[in-house]
Design goal:
Blueprint (H helix, E strand, L loop, with lengths): L1 H20 L7 H32 L8 H8 L1 H12 L4 H28 L5 H30 L7 H25 L5 H8 L2 H41 L30 H37 L8 H4 L1 H17 L2 H4 L6 H20 L5 H27 L6 H30 L9
């Protein structure tokens, strides 16, 4: 009997493997991909806009040293947001979670517009209070982005593994789109107020929810149809076996087809003291690589390259680049991110993602030396370096999440929790980079600011 059960288990694994190779949503794949791209873009857009607007926020308060606090506010409570998701929300339906997230994002945009308007029209408004109020939208966008990332990665888990590339491409486009908006408006009019942009963008959060709903309905309808077809086929097979007297010697529930369970989250394992070490053991390689790559790239793009902008390394006064060097730096970085996050067809064949972190470390060392020693580099070398920074970070991101979704050693009940823990460590890497930038600003780089 034990041998029969083992064979049944192998049959189930083979069946699941075959189910993975067949895409039941192939007929609607283009639409689902487009929705995932849009969802990823909107989910990360507010986060990107806060980063690219940090200089304007600080200048409104007449204190450039406050710039580093905005990336810090974006990330400070993100791990708490992800923990809440993995502990208390992981068994709540995706529909309810994403509806709440859409409302949360819309509130964040409108609140930011309101705060900046108050600061503009109330010249006597307390500066410290203004500063803390302007940090609240950053916290909203940061926690919303992290909650949305953890939720959508769990949702995409219910699709074939390569669908994650649609989401990752969208998150990459968010960087380019957000940085481009800030850059274009600043080039056109250096006095442009980004608060108006936040008001215009706020309704996009409604489309964000409907994009998810489209994929949800497509998936539910196709899964229900396939489930009915499979049940009918199984009934016919069982009747045929009974007539022939060929009754299987294993329990029928072992052969239950899990591919047709659309978005059931009831079996997901929650964050706990017992489950954390189990999941960490399964995913430690991905967790560590994501932590390292995000610490290195965010220390550069949110900290060291901003110092390069202040130092005036690039001799391009009066040129397109000279008007908005920092925004141009961020745009180059985001170009690298969107290229690599859209290159799953190549990244999935990369056997050792650790090599990407070696390149990332080299970039980090280069920009740290620039920030400390006033070394002037050609602008195109800087641009290439930042594109490479984004390429490495984006490739590790999409690669790690694809490998997790495709890793048969991780039980399905632990997969969403594993994805959540990975994103928590991503936040820890970004948080450590923000703290590092604040410390550098107030210690060894304090005298190097203009």
């Amino acid at each position: 009997m034990e041998e029969g059960e083992n064979n049944a288990h192998l049959d189930v694994e083979n069946a699941n493997t075959n189910n993975k190779s067949i895409d039941p949503y192939a007929s609607r794949k283009a639409l689902i991909y487009a929705c995932f791209i849009f969802i990823g873009l909107v989910n990360n857009l507010g986060y990107v806009l806060i980063i690219t607007s940090a200089q304007q926020f600080a200048s409104k308060l007449n204190n450039e040293t406050l710039i580093a606090f905005y990336p810090l506010a974006l990330i400070l409570f993100n791990s708490i947001s992800r923990f809440i998701n993995s502990k208390y929300c992981i068994t709540i339906s995706y529909f309810k979670r994403i509806l709440g997230l859409s409302i949360y994002f819309c509130f964040g945009y409108l609140f930011l517009f309101t705060v900046l308007t108050i600061i503009d029209y109330s010249k006597d408004f307390d500066q410290k209070l203004s500063f803390f109020l302007s940090l609240i939208p950053a916290i909203i966008m940061g926690t919303g982005q992290s909650f949305g990332e953890a939720t959508f990665l769990g949702y995409i888990r219910t699709f074939p593994e390569d669908y994650v590339s649609g989401w990752s491409s969208g998150t990459g486009f968010a960087g380019v789109f957000g940085a481009s908006l800030s850059l274009i408006f600043k080039i056109i009019n250096e006095q442009f107020e980004l608060k108006n942009l936040y008001l215009i963008i706020s309704p996009v959060t409604i489309i964000f929810f409907f994009a998810f709903y489209i994929t949800f309905r497509i998936k539910t309808n196709i899964d229900n149809k396939n489930k009915i077809e499979n049940e009918t086929e199984n009934n016919i097979t069982n009747i045929s076996q009974e007539i022939k007297g060929d009754i299987p010697d294993r329990p029928s529930d072992l052969m239950k087809d899990n591919s047709n369970v659309a978005t059931d989250v009831s079996d997901n394992k929650k964050m706990s003291i017992e489950n954390f070490p189990i999941v960490f053991k399964y995913g430690k390689r991905y967790i560590i690589n994501l932590f390292v790559v995000y610490f290195l790239e965010y220390t550069v793009c949110s900290g060291l390259c901003e110092r390069a902008n202040n130092f005036g390394y690039i001799d391009s006064e009066g040129t397109f680049f000279g008007k908005a060097q920092y925004e141009t730096f961020l745009l180059c970085y985001q170009i690298g991110v969107v290229i690599s996050r859209s290159s799953l067809f190549l990244v999935k064949y990369l056997k050792y993602i650790e090599f990407l972190n070696i390149f990332q470390l080299s970039n980090f060392v280069l920009w740290f030396i620039l920030a400390m020693n006033y070394i002037t580099l050609n602008q195109w070398i800087c641009f290439f370096s930042l594109i490479l920074l984004g390429l490495c970070g984006g490739a590790v991101y999409v690669g790690c999440f694809y490998f997790i979704l495709n890793d048969n050693k991780i039980p399905s009940v632990y997969k969403e929790l594993c994805l959540n823990i990975c994103t928590i460590f991503v936040d820890c890497g970004v948080l450590l980079s923000s703290i590092t930038c604040v410390v550098l600003d107030n210690t060894i780089m304090k005298e190097k600011k203009k």
